[in-house]
Amino acid sequence: MFGVLQPKGIGVSGLFEALWEQAIRNWTKRAGKRQLTHEQYVAFMVQEISGLFENGFPYRHLLNLRPDGKNNAKAKVLRNLGNSLYHPIRAVAMSEALLYYNESIAHAAKGSKARALAYGNRAAVCYHYRRYADCLENVRLARASNYPDRLAAKLKQREEQAKIAMEQNLCEHLQRSGRTTDFVAEELKLCCQAHANVPQMAECLQLVRNAQFGQHIVTSRPLKVGDVALFEKPFVTMVSHEFRHLRCGYCCSEANCFTLIPCEGCTMEMYCSEECLSKAYQEYHRYECGIVRDLKRIADDPINGVEGIAVAVAIVTFGNDLDTLQKHLNGLDESKVNAFTMDWNTATVKDIYNTVHVLATNAESRDRKDMALQIFHSTIIHRLVLERTELGAMCAANPDRSKLLFDLILRHWQICQTNRKAMDQVVTRVERSEGEGEEEYTPSFETFAIGYFPLMSMLNHSCVPNVMRLALNDGRSALVVTKPVDAGEQLFESYFSRDMLDNPVLAFYMEKYYKFICQCAACEIPDGDCYCLANWNDMRFLQKVIMTKPVSKRLKPLVTCMNEPGRWYPANQLAPLQLYLMRLLIAMYSAPPTVLLFVEGTLRKHAPLKAVIN
Fold it and tell me: What is the pLDDT of residue 73?
């Protein structure tokens, strides 16, 4: 029946669309004729789709799924690509070379010549960037990986050059230390007294509910631009697929991108230290290591996959015992779980997981085709987990445990679509065509990771938000006010990247993922020219006042201007000052910016360079 099946697109969604025409549509029609309720339909479709897979549906072949593993031949290819780009003068090319060397390290087997050579080449990139300590660390890693004796003299020479350069830099730093100081951004603090039971949140924030907005957050006191109303550490995070060989898979930091070390069980995850590697494995990676590469293959979205981490964290939270987890969930009264009323001073990890488990799934709002897609997707992940991780042995001959695992995958897949929060950074896109064409540098926002935030998930969406989430270097995110908010007024964020706010397909994604049609001012008021004068004046203020100051001196005059009495903000778009404030805050407080290189409009590679916020 399925011998000639051709997927209609990439990933699970494309395969589902092809299968929908051949079989699943008819199953849904049968369910409709039987007038099944939502719960009955889910159970019916789980049974039908499970039967499809049990009967040998070739999903592995159609999706090109296979176990991950080290491959020295591929590592060599990646290293050679890095070598072809290595160019001491062209910074962008050097950045690309670094990424290829990192990928080569991740694909090479432990102790292999392939990995040793990639470490040695990465040491050369570090020397170019004057990161001499990182250069020495890569030399150490190369030797620990059995660096070839025939090249030992070359590695020794690089080591000696780095040591000499370090000494010279230290002398220069001591000479300058009395005359200059490095810029350090002022520490962010809550705008007012902390809430008694939620110390990471300002006491003025309240969670309320009404018929129009459902649950939402309001403030009991006026808030000014620049105020921080909430700090929150995500319950789980996942580095976006495009940044997996640039950032630590555990703490998401980019600070050690020159010395990342690989997971020995897969080619997808790299870590900034042995400590992060160990914590990741113990807390969740042990249950996703065998499938993480295929999670990328089957996804039609570059930031999908955090649901697998959430399920793994849930299992570890309850002592790696599925029976204990099932007993806990059976006794959980979801109506009484509230992240805003819970006492975070005494909350356990299990208590915090409860606030994640009850996040909205929008299951009742999904049409039957969408629900079938969710089940189809979760069934594939469920089968991969049972095949390739130790959870297979736990669930063997125990249908109840297997069902719990499937239910958790399905639930967190839906929670991910509805509640995932992007962690953004400022990047500079480098647009150029092949050949000798000129390069154009364009600052923008890019999502480097996503996470679950039980408190911030209560924020409603607006295309003209009055708050933004700011990813901090310590792993937390801060909720910063970007437009004055009156007492009693609701706080709104944007569920999408700042660069998508004017995208005509935004409504499509809003309905697809969040199951509602946005009716904010930006969606109801048509664009026009009436805001041009205000925007032009703001741009002149940025160019003549803000841009002329050092970065460390820009924030105060900017927020002072934005808080001026009577200042008017457009109802249908973000003001230029708001957009610049977002960029400035990220550049000051978030992780180092990243350059993304586009060739003829296609993303090739990315690597850290100096911040560009002008």
Answer: 97
Cα separation, 577 vs 580, whole angstroms: 5
Pairing of strands 460-461, 492-493: parallel
**How confident is the model over 155-187, as pLDDT tens digits?**
999 999 999 998 887 665 545 444 444 556 788
Whether 608 contacts 593, CB under 8 Å: yes
Let me know: does 477 contact 459? Beta carbons within 8 Å: no
Region of 226 please: left (phi>0), alpha (psi -120 to 50) or beta.
Answer: left
Residue ranges for the chain with pLDDT beneath 50: 1, 174, 176-181, 433, 437, 499-501, 528-531, 594-614
Q: How, if at all, do strands 270-271 and 261-262 pair?
A: antiparallel
Q: How far, in whole angstroms, is CA 566 from its chain's centroid?
A: 37
pLDDT on residue 236: 94
Task: State how far the Cα of 519 lies from the Cα of 418, in Å rounded to an integer.
Answer: 18
Q: Which residue has the tokens 């805001």?
A: 531
Angle at alpha carbon of residue 607, lines to 603 and 611, rounded to 5°: 110
Measured on CA atoms in the order 102, 108, 110, 111, is the torsion positive or negative?
negative
397: left (phi over 0), alpha (psi -120 to 50) or beta: left
Contact 451, 471 (CB under 8 A): no
Strand partners of residue 224:
none
Q: 3-class SS at 239?
A: strand
What value, to the nearest 5°, has the Cα angle with vertex 222 and ends 573 and 464? Answer: 15
CB atoms within 10 A of CB 600: 10
Tell me, what DSSP letter sits at residue 551?
Answer: G
214-219 and 205-210 strand pairing: antiparallel
User: What is the SS3 assignment for 202?
Assistant: strand
Q: Are 573 and 531 in contact (CB under 8 A)?
A: yes
Give, for 356, the enclosing helix (H) or strand (E): helix 349-357
Helix, strand, coil percentages (3-state) for the chain, rounded to 5, are: 50, 15, 40
Residue pair 594/252 in contact by the 8 Å Cβ criterion: no
Return the HEC string of 59-112.
HHHHHCCCCCCCCHHHHHHHHHHHHHHCCCCCHHHHHHHHHHHHHHHHHCCCCC
Supply the DSSP symbol for 335: G
**CB neighbours (10 Å) of residue 124?**
20
Q: Provide φ and ψ at 516, rounded to 5°.
A: -150, 160
CB-based burial label for 296 (10 Å; 0-12, 13-18, 19+): middle
- DSSP structural state of residue 57: -
501, 494 in Cβ contact below 8 A? yes
Assigned token pair, 126: 């570090």
Contact yes or no for 440/431 (Cβ under 8 A): yes
3 state DSSP class of 597: strand
Q: Choose among 474, 460, 459, 467: nearest CA to 234.
A: 474
pLDDT digits (tens, 9 = 90+) for 419-433: 988 888 776 655 554
Q: Find how far residue 587's CA is from the centre of its chain.
A: 17
Residue with tokens 């950032």, as numbered in its chain: 247
DSSP label at 527? P
Cα–Cα dist 471/478, whole Å? 7
